[in-house]
Amino acid sequence: MLFGLLLIMLLAVFLSRVLLSLSMIGFVCVALVHSNFLQQIKSWCHNYFLLGLSLLFIIPFVSYLWSTNTAAWLDVIRVKLPLMFLPIAFAGKWLLSQKQQNLLAFVFLLLVFISSLWSFSYYITNIQVIHEGYLKAKVISTPFENDHIRFSWIISVAVLLCLFFIESTEKLRKFALTALAAWFIVYLHILSARTGLFCLYAVLFCNALRLFFHIRKRKLAMAGMALIILLPLLAWFFFPTFQNRIAYFFYDFTNAKANQYLPGSNDGSRVLSIKAGWTVLREHPFGVGAGDVFDKAGEWYQKQVPNMISNDKLFPSSEWLIYGCIAGWIGVLLFTAIMVFPFLFKQVQHRFFWIMLQLVAVLSFLFDIGLESQYGVFLYAFIMLWWWKWFSNTNAQNKLR
Questions:
Q1: How far is C-alpha 357 from the geometric centre of its chain's CA atoms?
Q2: How far apart are CA 308 and CA 263, in angstroms?
Q3: CB atoms within 10 A of CB 24
Q4: Beta strands in 105-216 (DSSP E)
Q5: What single DSSP character describes residue 315?
Q6: Contact 177/218 with Cβ under 8 angstroms?
Q7: Segment 309-344, tens digit of pLDDT
Q8: Mean pLDDT of 345-369
Q9: Predicted pLDDT at 86
Q10: CA-to-CA separations, 3 to 76, 92, 104, 157, 196, in angstroms, rounded
Q11: Whole-angstrom Cα distance, residue 152 to residue 295?
Q12: Which residues contact 74 (CB under 8 A, 6 or more apart)?
């Protein structure tokens, strides 16, 4: 039953917020309502990885004590609830067979593939409009209600998953997975969302280093390095969206560097949001509470950029700053520890792919706030917990087969 609910949650994230919420509730209830509930809570308390994920909820939750905007605080807590309950649900002794884990992975890849085709079909039917839009901070329509940042991150995770299976599967399936990874790479350059591209290049670069130094496949590693160099050049010449995205980035960055506010800008608004968050952190070293982050940032906007339109006023565009604004420098240190610990976690199989997953998560949080939206919270929690359960229980699963 748990496996079926995992599949439903995975499907729901691409289809419906309501179905996603209902399936999460069902999964948590089934995973927690049993006679060994107290033992499961004990297991959660003794697992630093699971506790770390839950701390991402607990920190803003306890900040109620120093938040004044309780309505905004409640919205934050509602969004972050999966970070509390999913780790407890995954702390149970239940296991999925290797066959079930593989099926879950291939369903994930299939859903990402279909979603990317849907997004690409929108592109090819509106090419001229979209090319012009990329010069005005607009992008192709994507799943997750056009959350192109989260979708681009998921694509980079899908590439990583393809690389994982390519190393340990039969020749015919290896060819199909290579073609799928190639499509994801092409699509990411068409979409040209920086978060996904940074994560992609990090995965490709680290994999090339691993091939060269650890696996000793040096010709393949050199080919990988050549691919990393050629990809942006080819994208520049063949994908107008990529070219226009780069052009807009430099235009927007020039204005941001000169402290010139440009209504409707993308990077300019992000830079200003980081300045706002940094000011809030400096002026409130113990934090302002989850409910007051946007209000305090708004005070900075009003003072420093009084003509800024409401839609351009963003939360500080870094999860480090968000948790710093919530709980001060203690929040920054705790968030850093939560992000770093999984890199040191040795009780997993396939450590390279585990570390790569942590790396793409950290990169996505540096200049984005993926933990402030329902899709971002679920995707991060679900993928981290799924891979942890998968990789940390490989030996146990093999014994059960």
A1: 10
A2: 7
A3: 24
A4: none
A5: -
A6: no
A7: 887 788 999 999 999 999 999 999 999 999 999 998
A8: 92
A9: 96
A10: 29, 13, 8, 21, 28
A11: 29
A12: 291
Total Cβ atoms within 10 A of residue 34: 12
Residue type present at position 35:
S
Give the Cα separation of 64 and 74 in Å (integer). Answer: 9
| 3-class SS of residue 345 | coil
Q: Which residue has the tokens 């991402």?
A: 56
Using CA atoms, how far apart are residues 26 and 6, in angstroms rounded to an integer? Answer: 10
Indicate the pLDDT class of residue 257, thresholds 50, 70 and 90.
Answer: low
Structure tokens at 36: 């060994």
Q: What share of the chain is helix, strand, coil (3-state, %, to 5)?
A: 80, 0, 20
Report the C-alpha gap between 78 and 72 in whole angstroms. 10
User: Residue 144, SS3?
Assistant: helix
Question: Which amino acid, residue 366?
Answer: L
The answer to whether 311 touches 268, Cβ cutoff 8 Å, is no
Measure Cα distances from 257 to 19, 143, 160 in Å.
Answer: 43, 32, 34
Round to whole Å and give the CA distance between 158 and 319: 23
pLDDT of residue 347: 81
Contacting residues for 313 by C-beta, under 8 A, at least 6 apart = 269, 273, 294, 297, 298, 301
Per-residue pLDDT of 82-133, as tens digits, reads 999 999 999 998 999 989 999 999 999 999 999 999 999 999 998 999 998 8
Helical (H) or strand (E) element with 141? none
CA distance 96 to 155: 24
